[in-house]
Specification:
By secondary structure, the chain is α+β, with helices and mostly antiparallel strands. It folds into 2 domains: 4-92, no CATH class; 94-179 and 189-195, no CATH class. It is built from 5 helices and 11 strands. The chain has helices at 4-22, 56-59, 110-119, 164-174, 188-191; strands at residues 28-29, 33-35, 47-49, 70-73, 84-94, 105-106, 135-138, 145-149, 155-161, 180-184, 196-205. Strands 1-2-3-4-11-5-10-9-8-7-6 form an 11-stranded mixed sheet, with helices on both faces. A hairpin with a 6-residue loop joins strand 7 and strand 8 (145-149). It is globular.
């Protein structure tokens, strides 16, 4: 059986790496974790574990572990003295949604990306290089949107705002037959649209 936690963690780490590369930063992958040697963009961790076997010793030497450092503990297994839990969440998984009619659109250019970013309440975070590898989608009126990352067997779903049904329809249209993964601090809306939880994660922060 596929362990969808591993699929979701790896897809999420690749999305974090893409976000960093869009901002001119380079991260590193090992079998145990993805790490960034310098501070990452706002809301993005400095490390993401890819195995429950990862330890603090596998992570801390490879990042700026001073105040402000954050680590996504993908399997909720780390012991990190000096860090506090910033939040906890659940990985989610859904079998491939069926295709339906959708009027959702894909962001294709920098100006539309800026409009999408304003709609989801961010500023100067989502930069045009993201469009080379991620699929950013939205309802025609920009009332809803999401990021889709197809980096493995499953399609990662993140940065969802607004209508989950529209996200599923867009994913089914663009990536037919592909299961979906992601994580949510409050998984209830996703669960109402066919997702199940597959395990906990934590994000740690050094104050």
């Amino acid at each position: 059986m596929t362990d969808w936690r591993h699929e979701a963690a790896r897809d999420n780490a690749r999305w974090c790496d893409l976000m960093c590369r869009a901002h001119g930063l380079a991260g590193t992958f090992t079998d145990l974790a993805w790490t960034s040697p310098v501070r990452t963009p706002p809301f993005y961790p400095d490390a993401v574990t890819l195995s429950p076997a990862a330890t603090a010793a596998d992570l801390l030497p490879h990042l700026d572990a001073g105040p402000g450092a954050s680590i996504k503990d993908s399997f909720a297994t780390l012991d990190l003295p000096g860090f506090d839990v910033l939040f906890e969440a659940q990985w989610i998984h859904r079998d491939a949604p069926g295709r339906t009619t959708t009027d959702w659109q894909v962001v294709r250019d920098a100006s539309t990306l800026a409009e999408w970013e304003r709609a989801c309440g961010m500023k100067d975070l989502f930069l045009p290089p993201l469009l080379d590898e991620a699929t950013i989608v939205h309802a025609p009126d920009l009332s809803s949107g999401a990021v889709l990352t197809a980096t493995g067997r499953a399609v990662g779903v993140s940065n969802v705002f607004g209508d989950w049904a529209g996200v599923l329809a867009a994913a089914a249209e663009l990536f037919p037959g592909r299961p979906l993964v992601g994580y949510e601090s409050d998984p209830a809306p996703a669960l109402r649209h066919g997702f199940t939880t597959t395990g906990p994660l934590r994000v740690w922060l050094r104050a």
